[in-house]
Amino acid sequence: MDLPSPLALENLIERHPRGNRVPVIFTSPHSGRDYSAAFIAQARLDPQSLRRSEDSFVDELFAAAPECGAVLLAARFPRAFCDVNRERWELDPAMFEGALPAFVNRASPRVEAGLGTIPRVVASDTPIYRQRLPFAEAETRIATCWAPFHDRLAALIAQTRADFGACLLVDCHSMPHASLLGLGRVDIVLGDAHGTTCAGAVTARIEAALQALGFVVRRNTPYAGGFITRHYGRPQDGVHAVQIELARRLYMDEASLTPSAGFPRLQQAITRLIALLAAEAPGLMAI
User: Fold this and answer.
1) What is the model's pLDDT at position 8?
2) Are 260 and 252 in contact, with CB atoms under 8 Å apart?
3) Is the pLDDT of residue 6 over 60?
4) 139: Cβ–Cβ under 8 A, 6 or more apart, which residues?
């Protein structure tokens, strides 16, 4: 395997425990907010509009992970630039000059929605680019963003399994208000691909802990888990993966993309959840 370049590693945030380590990894793949001048020049949207796809501040909400013994891996680059919660090559042919190579997945539901590995639209279904991109642009982004993220995550999971015999991966996201219309009050959605990516006891414990903190929790609707959860979650092999989606209204103003008065309360609650998982995950995964 080729080692990622120093530039590629600079595209990631990787924070390790300061003390005793636990077999838990937190990822925040969509909270990156480093918008390069070159990307902004390619876009027909202003920087504020590009940020609509962000899971803004999720990395900050889970910032206590290292203090509790867990690893936190986050992307610095924005989701609108490269989405690591997709397959390596989910690309929309309408975005690119010329024909795409045969290995590209052109027809996934994510591609059809404009939300492939290189997204065509932001969350509001507004096209991002002024003109078509060369395929070399996708190759560069995947080499410097997608591949280093997954190389590091795979290595962290492998090391955790080697050291502890099992690993819990918590993939952290946020939900816009529009995605929850018609569902009544929903604060948090846990996704384990309908019980296939994580042992039931682990998902149930996370759900119970969040409910005890006062949140209304749903499972798998409307988010059952993306590529990260489904690709790495193999409970039969000791790797348990669960996706956690936080309603943005709990902690931010979606119009201005700024933290709200609810941010400290949610951050404190998430810190309590992290501490609980650090203490209980080894036993839960052994059941």
Assistant:
1) 56
2) yes
3) no
4) none
CA distances from 118 to 39, 82, 237, 255 (A): 12, 5, 31, 24
Residue extents of the structural domains in the chain: 6-285
Q: 3-state secondary structure string, 175-203?
A: ECHHHHCCCCCCCEEEECCCCCCCCHHHH
CA pair distance 217, 190, nearest whole angstrom: 7
Burial-class residue 197 by CB neighbours within 10 Å (0-12, 13-18, 19+): buried
For residue 190, give the nearest of 161, 165, 160, 222 by alpha carbon. Answer: 222
- Cβ count near 117 (within 10 Å): 26
Which single residue is written with the structure tokens 């932001």? Answer: 122
CATH class of 6-285: alpha beta
Residue 182 confidence class, pLDDT cut points 50, 70, 90: confident
Encode pLDDT of 89-98 as tens digits. 999 999 999 9
Give the β-pairing of 252-253 and 239-247. Answer: unpaired
Q: Give helix 200-212 / helix 263-285 axis angle, nearest 10°.
A: 150
Name the pairing type of β-strands 188-191 and 239-247. Answer: antiparallel
CA distance 80 to 50: 7
Mention every residue, 6+ apart, whose C-beta is less than 8 A from residue 285.
23, 166, 167, 168, 199, 202, 238, 240
Contact (Cβ atoms closer than 8 angstroms) between residue 223 and residue 191: yes
